[in-house]
Specification:
About 40% of the residues lie in helices and about 20% in strands. The strands form two sheets. The protein has a nine-stranded mixed sheet with strand order 2-1-3-4-7-8-9-10-11. A two-stranded antiparallel ribbon has the order 5-6. Helix 5 crosses helix 6 and helix 10 runs antiparallel to helix 11. It is globular and about 60 Å long. It starts with a helix and ends with a strand.
């Protein structure tokens, strides 16, 4: 009888554990700004007087995805500067997703991206300095550089938010964080420096085929109904297991000037990454952006890559923010191009 009761007790505990797994944690957090300081507060609802707020569903263990929505203060009273709003959005994400960020960082380290990275760090820091300095000079007169400044502020907030809550043994250097947040560009930068470059000219057909498969990531589908009454689109990404820490994100940023054409950007993403990398985006102007990988067989193209440019992790989000048409999106994406990123984009205008 005791054994039977004990078994029932353990069965009860098991059921409780299963039920707990079926109920992922949902966090609502507001961030306030006063006297030059930011303060995050968990709450039972979002407050529109906060400089930004977030809803974070930690459902990765049950669905394979976390879900994160971050919204900036959107009243038209200029209470907060746009720089501060962008920074606050990043700060919130850094605080809320700090556990996922560290796991993703550890996983990326296994890829070898951080090996012998002195030259890579130099390249990425020079690139970040160029974007910071140029955006500060031109943000008052050019919406392109103005919104680059906001993206960089969001990145700075992301790093500061993570650093403010991470355990001492899990702190990540700023240099490593840059590489983590732009790891696809960083991979191209290593190719530019010749440290991991595949020379297809010296490979057999079978070797080329093998590496083409290994270095491809995405497939996309666009299907039009036979009677033209409907349109379906889909996207799939395949990659190594080490990058399967996934967060589905929704950014809602409204500037005081209101010169962005898309205030809502929805996309699948990763911890510490401010763009998709898959890439698949739905914009509130009814533009759909998706990309599939292609390999760069002409290795001389890497000579076009330069640190004084706007890399993809910034350029994609900038195009998402400013574009009002498919043609627009391509023009913004081409501007300040560094000659890199092995992908091909499809832009659907669903108006």
């Amino acid at each position: 009888m005791k054994a039977f009761i004990l078994s029932l007790f353990y069965l009860f505990l098991l059921q409780e554990s299963i039920q707990a797994l079926d109920k992922p944690e949902s966090i609502i957090m507001n961030i306030y700004y006063s006297n030059g300081k930011y303060k995050t507060v968990k709450s039972d609802k979002v407050y529109d007087e906060a400089i930004a707020n977030a809803i974070y569903n930690k459902s990765y263990e049950t669905t394979g995805w976390d879900f994160l929505t971050i919204t900036s203060y959107d009243k038209k009273d200029n209470k907060y500067s746009d720089s501060n709003k962008a920074y606050a959005m990043g700060y919130l994400e850094g605080v809320l997703t700090k556990d996922r960020i560290y796991t993703f960082y550890r996983n990326i380290k296994f890829t070898g991206l951080y090996d012998d990275n002195e030259n890579l760090i130099k390249f990425m820091k020079e690139n970040l300095n160029y974007m910071n300095e140029t955006s500060l000079k031109n943000r008052d007169t050019d919406p392109y550089w103005e919104h680059i400044h906001y993206i960089l502020q969001q990145f700075k907030g992301l790093y500061d938010g993570y650093t403010s809550v991470a355990e001492k043994e899990k702190l990540i250097s700023f240099e490593d964080f840059i590489i983590l947040s732009s790891y696809t560009d960083a991979d191209d930068a290593k190719n530019y420096m010749g440290t991991s470059l595949l020379n297809y000219r010296e490979m057999t057909t079978e070797e080329i085929r093998k590496n083409f498969i290994l270095n491809s990531r995405c497939s996309a589908l666009v299907k039009l109904a036979n009677d033209y009454s409907d349109l379906w689109f889909g996207h799939a990404t395949w990659d190594y297991y080490n990058v399967m820490i996934r967060i589905f994100k929704e950014y809602r940023f409204v500037s005081n000037k209101g010169n962005e054409n898309n205030k809502v950007i929805v996309f699948p993403s990763y911890p510490a990454v401010l763009f998709s990398t898959d890439d698949f985006y739905y914009l509130d102007s009814k533009l759909l952006v998706m990309e599939t990988s292609i390999n760069i067989f002409d290795i001389d193209l890497y000579k076009e890559m330069k640190p004084k440019s706007v890399l993809t992790w910034v350029r994609i989000m900038l195009a998402n923010i400013l574009a009002k048409s498919a043609e627009d999106w391509i023009e913004y994406f081409k501007k300040e191009n560094s000659g890199t990123y092995n992908c091909q984009f499809t832009i659907l205008d669903l108006h």
